[in-house]
Specification:
By secondary structure, the chain is an alpha/beta fold. It is built from 19 helices and 15 strands. It folds into four domains: about 240 residues, 3-Layer(aba) Sandwich (Rossmann fold), CATH 3.40.50.300; about 50 residues, no CATH class; about 80 residues, no CATH class; about 150 residues, no CATH class. Helix 6 runs parallel beside helix 7 and helix 9 runs parallel beside helix 11.
């Protein structure tokens, strides 16, 4: 047992995670790794062999907060000899497989979390890598005193001696946050290249490597100009389906977590649809939808819907990518904020560029970091958690020009709507139409719809806003479901070359308000007022006059 070799740290962290109320059992990831190790053991009947020795090099890349560290601890705790982990694993899914006992705690594991350092004692790459190398050497000398590891031996020569003198001893290398050094200001380009060379020398084509499992955020393939790390097979969320189910929560897993939440919180305020609205929206390469795991657990644990990003202001990170407005990227952001996916050539390796010079490089980075979702050639803002961050960015950055001004106007628009102030509503619509031509060039109801999305941008903080949703006997243009049951419900119908009164009448005739009631026999879902808003625009009018009309379809009810 050592600091890196067969340590007990991974097991203790895994045991703690597995004991939590909202733990999701993803231990079946181990069944996808077992075939890599079968050359040392008799193959399990029915288990297919994986051709080629390079298959033992696995790199999993995912955005932050998608469970990479939990999985690394799980794998290290299962294979490693540092602690008897059977008492935990025997109650989990992995225990059903015939090879369970054959591999449980039977392997030497080198487990390094590369961002686990004393920052005050690490001011340079030389200090950083020296600490890692010296710790590895100490572990090997302690565990293999007969391997004749000298004071001048390198880490690689020490492993070779252990292999030769120790009866062909092999190791599973589990490197979590392996790309940490590539994000540090103290690391020069020369340092980063040196680190890639170190990993290559340590792992590539070495007889003592039973398997190498790396996790990180950025893709591995383009970290060097040479072939240092080309032995790894990369598995990313957007381009490789294998391993996808182990990172992020599926619908079925969130259903189960929500049942636990309901049992624990008899009067809990979070609904199942809330979790979908706030944290769903990521997609695997095959199109399977995933929830942000850390945010789901945070919401259920604290009975609170909100952003669970760990940084102080995620919108600042988003702003880093879009501040220069390369190739009119802000117009794309505006479109995505209206719910319109944008065609993009996302190649995840492009995110490793030192300078992001093209729109595709920027979008690649935003997908890799989890700010955008990517599927089938299109990018989009995945959920309310991220939509709120984009909205915060737009509202707080005056250099966004027309988008900033639209965001400011949106607060006034929501207030005017709730107050029934159609005069102010009309003034805002006309002012935006006449002054914000970079975004609002419309001659149809579809383009008018984009304007409505922005003049009600701030409403997204208080409402689940749906477009073209089936309600009553038709499809309503906009329906605002309040996040607080006592808040006003809002229905908006748009008309081009018609009247606002006609829009109101359509809302009533088609009974669009039905969606605010519960199903037959259930209690009403909302107790606030129901406001019908009709907005019309006449394309033939040279003065570009708009018309707004508002009617209260139902007054506020008692508490529900």
């Amino acid at each position: 047992m050592g600091i890196y070799l067969n340590n007990a740290k991974a097991y203790n962290l895994f045991r703690e995670d597995a004991s939590l109320l909202y733990y999701v059992d993803k231990t079946e990831i181990i069944k996808d790794l077992i075939p890599i190790l079968e050359s040392k053991y008799n193959p399990v009947p029915g288990m297919a062999r994986i051709p080629g020795k390079t298959q033992r090099y696995i790199c999993i890349t995912r955005p932050r907060r998608f469970g990479k560290t939990v999985m690394a601890n799980t794998i290290a705790a299962f294979f490693g000899k540092g602690a008897d982990s059977g008492e935990v694993f025997e109650h989990l899914k992995v225990s059903q497989y015939p090879w369970f006992r054959q591999h449980l705690n039977q392997h030497n594991v080198i487990h390094i979390v590369f961002n686990d350092i004393d920052e005050e004692d690490c001011q340079s790459y030389q200090q950083y890598i020296a600490r890692i190398k010296s710790t590895l050497l100490d572990d090997l000398r302690y565990a293999y005193p007969n391997a004749a590891i000298g004071q001048n031996d390198t880490v690689i020569s020490a492993f070779n001696k252990v292999f030769e003198y120790g009866g062909e001893e092999k190791f599973i290398f589990i490197f979590d946050e392996w790309d940490y050094i590539f994000h540090q200001s103290f690391a020069t380009d020369k340092d980063k290249k040196s680190f890639a060379h170190f990993l290559n020398a340590l792992l590539k084509d070495k007889p003592y490597v039973e398997m190498a499992y790396l996790t990180g955020v950025l893709p591995i393939a383009k970290y060097s100009s040479g072939s240092e790390l080309n032995m790894f097979f990369e598995f990313s969320m957007a381009s490789m389906e294998q391993f996808s189910e182990y990172f992020g929560f599926t619908d079925e897993e969130v259903d189960d977590l929500y049942r636990r939440y309901q049992a624990q919180n008899k009067n809990g305020s979070i609904t199942r649809s809330d979790l979908e609205l706030w944290y769903d929206g990521y997609q695997t390469a095959s199109g399977k939808r995933l929830y942000n795991p850390r945010s789901v657990v945070g919401a259920l644990s604290y009975n609170h819907l909100g952003s669970f990003w760990t940084s102080s202001g995620p919108y600042d990170e988003i702003y880093f990518y879009v501040k220069n407005d390369i190739d009119n990227i802000r117009n794309d952001i505006a479109a995505m904020m209206t719910g319109t996916p944008i065609l993009a050539n996302v190649q995840e390796y492009a995110s490793t560029s030192t300078e992001l010079k093209t729109k595709d490089e920027i979008y690649s980075a935003m997908v890799v970091y989890g700010f955008l979702s990517f599927y089938n050639g299109y990018i989009s803002i995945p959920n309310k958690e991220l939509m709120d961050q984009f909205a915060d960015m737009v509202r707080q950055k005056p250099d966004f020009g027309y988008m900033y001004r639209l965001a400011i106007e949106s607060g006034k628009m929501l207030t005017a709507t709730k107050n029934g102030d159609t005069t102010t509503m009309t003034e805002i619509l006309e002012r935006v139409h006449n002054t914000e031509s970079p975004l609002i060039r419309y001659n149809s109801e579809a383009e008018l719809s984009k304007l409505i999305t922005f003049v009600y941008l701030q409403a997204r903080e208080y409402y689940d806003i749906r477009l073209e949703e089936h309600s009553g006997t038709g499809c309503v243009d906009y329906i605002f479901y309040p996040l607080k049951k006592a808040d006003d419900c809002i229905i908006i119908e748009l008309k081009v070359d018609d009247t606002a009164a006609a829009a109101i009448q359509q809302i009533k005739d088609r009974n669009y308000a039905l969606n605010f009631d519960g199903k037959l026999g259930e209690s009403p879902r909302y107790c606030g007022r129901i406001l019908a808003v009709g907005i019309a625009y006449n394309r033939k009018d040279p003065h570009k006059k708009h018309e707004c009309q508002l009617e209260v379809l139902r007054e506020k009810r008692g508490k529900i």
